[in-house]
């Protein structure tokens, strides 16, 4: 309010001063005489002032026209001028408008519109780190893989956008199933960003799928250094990779390297059952039975497992059943109440034909926790004791319908595997297999399939006449020794 009043007062004062000045000039009576090319002009003071103002305006206008002409010449020459800046600002404004429309269309599920607006933004804006990436994403959403690949490859030219381009191509190859090229792209992405968590996970998965266990262990170490993996988880997974590396070396028949890798895997994670079994076999191959026994006993204390028992038996492969029973007592005494220990001891007693002792060793396992294996052992004991055929058949029927017992189950997808492996073949989970009861299962176990012909008493058919040589080569089934039954049960 006051400022507006002040401006009005100043304006009135200026007009009054101007009128006063003009009046004073008019009252002087002086005149100005100008002669130009024989022409003589006489003007008063007021006219002189007006003429001077017009002259200054003409000079200013002339300079502006000359500047405009010079700007047009520079513009046509390609130099930066006010005109070029004007057009640049206009183009930039249109480009950012197209960019925002493309982003909104992409978020709204309109990939074709998003792609067209992204291409317009790419044409109007000179910012490939923004527009080219948006073009690639819109092209992928629209199903134009070729255009997306071209956009990602264009990003490789600039150092600032190279990682984004490699990552985009990596995801494209993973979607196409080209894992060989994807592995190379993942390695390149790792070189550009060694601490990028997603890149490390993808690289580890691809290396594991390709069987590059040495490279996978190096990537796992990079995850630890990047701080994306706890130290205890790192030690466990490193042991898993070392174990798989040892198995690969064994497949390549390189025993020295196999022993070193297997022993290292057991050292990294002593509770890993496959690592303990493989390390024990490596010690056996080396002739070091003492360390093999020590490794297996330590693992048995953590969790009794059939693989550990098989490795323990391999320490003395030529011993008699009685000697084996005596030697195994140092192992079974560690966890005597465990179901696996009870079944193992019962199988060993079956091998020496001590059926009452085998029944005592088995205890109530077959009734408290009936599984195919425990019921099969009970049926073998019953047959060895001379039980009625009806009882044996009843036990066999129960064994067929019983759960399989602990298996290697994936903790993510619950898939069951015949043997341990670092990566689940069903869901691709890494180090997700654990030895436990599966949720449900209807297929008979291989161990039971081996026992059925031995523990089920079938009436023998009347043999047809056949050559004497054939009868001598195939002994009757009832002549199968009991130690063979126990060996198959084990």
Task: Explain the layout of strands and helices.
Blueprint (H helix, E strand, L loop, with lengths): L1 H26 L4 E5 L2 E5 L1 H33 L4 H26 L3 H14 L3 H15 L2 H11 L6 H15 L2 H14 L4 H14 L2 H14 L4 H21 L3 H14 L4 H14 L2 H14 L3 H8 L7 H12 L6 H13 L3 H8 L2 H4 L3 H13 L4 H13 L5 E4 L5 E2 L15 E4 L9 H10 L12 H6 L8 H8 L1
Antiparallel strand pairs: 1-2, 3-4, 3-5
Helix pairs in contact: 3-4, 3-5, 4-5, 5-6, 6-7, 7-8, 8-9, 9-10, 10-11, 11-12, 12-13, 13-14, 13-15, 14-15, 16-17, 17-18, 17-20, 17-24, 18-20, 20-21, 20-22, 20-24
Quick take:
The chain is mainly alpha-helical and 490 residues long.
Describe this structure as you would to a colleague.
It is a single chain. The protein contains 24 helices and five strands. It has helices at residues 2-27, 45-77, 82-107, 111-124, 128-142, 145-155, 162-176, 179-192, 197-210, 213-226, 231-251, 255-268, 273-286, 289-302, 306-313, 321-332, 339-351, 355-362, 365-368, 372-384, 389-401, 446-455, 468-473, 482-489; strands at 32-36, 39-43, 407-410, 416-417, 433-436. The strands form two sheets. A three-stranded antiparallel sheet has the order 4-3-5, with no helix packed on it. Helix 3 (82-107) packs antiparallel against helix 4, helix 12 (255-268) crosses helix 13 and helix 13 packs parallel to helix 15. The radius of gyration is 46 Å and the shape is rod-shaped. The N and C termini lie far apart (105 Å). 31% of the residues are buried. The model is unreliable at 441-449 and 451-490 (pLDDT under 50).
